[in-house]
Amino acid sequence: MAHYALLDENNVVTNVITGRNENETVQGISDWENYYGQVHNQTCKRTSWNTYGNVHQSGGTPFRKNYAQVGGIYSEKLDAFIPVKPFPSWTLDEETCQWVAPSPYPEVLREPDKDDIPYPIYTWNESTLSWVLITP
User: Fold this and answer.
1) Helix and strand tally (H, E) in the chain?
2) pLDDT at 120
3) Which of 80, 106, 125, 133 could be a cystine partner for 65, CB 3.0 to 4.6 Å?
4) What is the average per-residue pLDDT within 53-76?
C-alpha cells in the first residue's frame, strides 16, 4: 500500500490518499502518480509514511524528506515535502526539510529512579523567541 499527496496549483498538499504500490501494474496502468493526478485533476506525488526529517524510520532509503502533510508544500527544487511552518521565526533546514526554532528545545535529563515523574513539556513563545515550561 502506497500513499500519494495531491497538490494544488501552488504545490500545497490538499489531501493524502492511499493507492497502489509503484511496482504494481493493473489494467496496463503502472504510473500511479500520473493516474491519481488525472483522477483527482491535481498534481500527484508519492509520499512515504516511514520518512521523517530525511530519515527512513525502518532503516530504508528516505523518500522526499518527509511524509506529506495537508497544508504543507511540495518543493520541486528539493524534491521534498515540507510541513506547515509553525512560527514565523523558525527557519527551514534544507537537509531535513524540517522547521528549526531559533533556540534548541531544552535538554531534559532524567534521574533513573524517578521514571514515574512525567517529562517537562515546553511550548514555543513567539513573542519572546524562547521555550516556556508548561506547568500542570
Assistant:
1) 1, 11
2) 83
3) 80
4) 96
Q: Which helix (H) or strand (E) holds 37?
A: helix 32-40
**Confidence check: pLDDT of 63 > 80:** yes
pTM of the model: 0.86
Query: Would you call 69 exposed, middle or buried from its count of C-beta atoms within 10 A (0-12, 13-18, 19+)?
Result: middle
DSSP state of 44: E
Query: Would you give the distance in Å from CA 41 to the centre of its chain?
Result: 23
**For the chain, how many structural domains are there in total?**
1
Neighbouring-strand partners of residue 118? none
C-alpha cell at 43: 498534481
Identify which of 48, 61, 54, 38 has the alpha carbon closest to the alpha carbon of residue 4.
48
Structure confidence at residue 114 as a pLDDT band (50, 70, 90):
low
